[in-house]
């Protein structure tokens, strides 16, 4: 019974003294989220990142809308001089519009790198970059993101495509008529 009581006290004290989890939201123009380029005609690049993250779990959201459809890519990294020191930050996951970035860890475990590419970025909706991690007291991370708009066909391309469909349709119709005449 005494062992169970000690276990309960141990768990209760661990919960009581655990650092609190916190979440932050950032939008373009914040010091943590700088955007460069033309969001209406593309291409766009951005830098994201934070320094001095307090001890504990954290979730950072970078939210943005854009004036055209396209694809995005990006990378994010963190490093420390000494594992488990105040500057050591562990990134658990990086998600862009629900897609997970790929994590690479250095051989000594002091650097983490995430990258993702070909992410669909939608016009007029709230796009989100989500970073989940744990800081040991003074952690930091930084990254970049890029966006390219989808290509829009020019009028000459549309004209050639419509003409091509017309010629295929004419050829199919002409062939059918020729077959009917041959059978008669």
From TrEMBL:
InterPro entries, per database record: Ice-binding_C
User: In which domain of life is the source organism classified?
Assistant: Bacteria
Residues spanning the signal sequence: 1-23
Residue spans making up a coiled coil are none
Keyword entries, A-Z = Signal
Ice-binding protein C-terminal domain: from which residue to which, for each copy?
Answer: 151-174
Q: What is this protein called?
A: PEP-CTERM protein-sorting domain-containing protein
């Amino acid at each position: 019974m005494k062992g169970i009581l000690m276990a309960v006290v141990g768990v209760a004290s661990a919960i009581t003294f655990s650092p609190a989890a916190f979440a932050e939201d950032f939008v373009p123009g914040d010091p943590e989220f700088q955007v460069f380029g033309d969001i209406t005609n593309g291409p766009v690049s951005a830098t994201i990142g934070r320094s001095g993250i307090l001890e504990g779990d954290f979730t950072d959201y970078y939210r943005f809308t854009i004036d055209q459809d396209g694809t995005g890519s990006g990378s994010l990294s963190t490093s420390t001089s000494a594992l488990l020191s105040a500057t050591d930050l562990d990134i658990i996951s990086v998600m862009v519009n629900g897609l997970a970035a790929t994590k690479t860890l250095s051989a000594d475990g002091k650097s983490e790198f995430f990258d993702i590419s070909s992410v669909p970025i939608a016009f007029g909706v709230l796009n989100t970059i989500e970073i989940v991690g744990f800081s040991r007291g003074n952690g930091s991370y930084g990254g970049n993101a890029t966006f390219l708009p989808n290509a829009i066909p020019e009028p000459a391309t549309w004209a050639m495509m419509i003409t091509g469909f017309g010629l295929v349709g004419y050829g199919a119709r002409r062939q059918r008529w020729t077959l009917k005449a041959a059978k008669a």
